[in-house]
Amino acid sequence: MSKSAGEHWTCAALSLLGWGVALTRDGLERTDILAVQTTGVRRMIEVQVKAARGLGDKVSWPLGPNAQLPSISDREWFVLVMLPDNLVTSPRAFVVPRDHVAAAAWISHMNWLTDPSAEPGKRNAPVERARVLAPVWSRYENRWDLLDASAREAPVLLPPEYRDLAQEPRVGLPPQHPWHSGIPKW
User: Fold this and answer.
1) Whole-angstrom Cα distance, residue 67 to residue 79?
2) pLDDT tens for residues 12-52?
3) How many CA atoms lie within 13 A of 53 on its CB side?
4) Residue 9's CB: how many other CB atoms inside 10 A?
5) How far apart are CA 8 and CA 12, in angstroms?
6) CA 82 → CA 85, 138, 153, 177, distances in Å?
7) 129 three-state secondary structure
8) Category of 131 on φ-ψ map: left (φ > 0), alpha (ψ -120 to 50) or beta
């Protein structure tokens, strides 16, 4: 039930922030929630929700092949939700542009897979099995304000070392990622 809980909680959060929301109920690829601002320019966004149980640094989200695809528009976002095990504690949310998620999933996995200090033959999971730990997203926590502008213009808030890893031949970026034409500064 984590997926459903994360989607409904995200809908509630967006509603409180003035967005009109609609769950797609698995009818739209790459999008769990469609939302439109109820004031101003009435900006529309597409949100993919990933939910995981727990609140600590060991929480991770599986970010497989679909999550690693580049954005099709400047309206594509992920909300990564950490769900507590009780109703006393609030969930935590990380609001991240799709292209940032795609890069982080690839970088995290390829860095782990090709780690020169790892024992040979011990790491062989394909990139489709990528998981990204909560600390990677820390600077995106509660950044609902990012939704007010283009996802392609959002600041990159990934850990600084990820920029270096993205430029290393052993790690790099996923195929067709827009940052192949120039890695942004962060």
Assistant:
1) 12
2) 999 999 999 999 976 678 999 999 999 888 999 999 999 99
3) 6
4) 18
5) 6
6) 10, 12, 25, 27
7) helix
8) beta
How many angstroms separate the CA atoms of 70 and 182, rounded?
15
Pair of tokens at residue 61: 């989200």
> Which helix (H) or strand (E) element contains residue 6?
helix 2-16
Tokens found for residue 85:
């095990």
> Residue 175 — φ and ψ, nearest 5°?
-55, 145
Q: 83, 75 in Cβ contact below 8 A?
A: no
Global pTM? 0.94
Distance CA 143, CA 161 (A): 21
Assigned token pair, 67: 């999550």
Query: Cα 95 vs. chain centroid, distance in angstroms?
Result: 7
Which residues are registered as beta bridge partners of 62? 131
Query: In DSSP terms, which residues pair with 23 in a beta bridge?
Result: 33
Place of tokens 């600084």: 160
In this predicted model, what pLDDT tens digit does every residue of 42-77 receive, in sequence order? Answer: 999 999 999 999 989 999 999 999 999 999 999 999
Residues 74, 152 contacting (CB under 8 angstroms): yes
CA distance 180 to 82: 31
Of 27, 33, 109, nearest to 65 by C-alpha is: 109
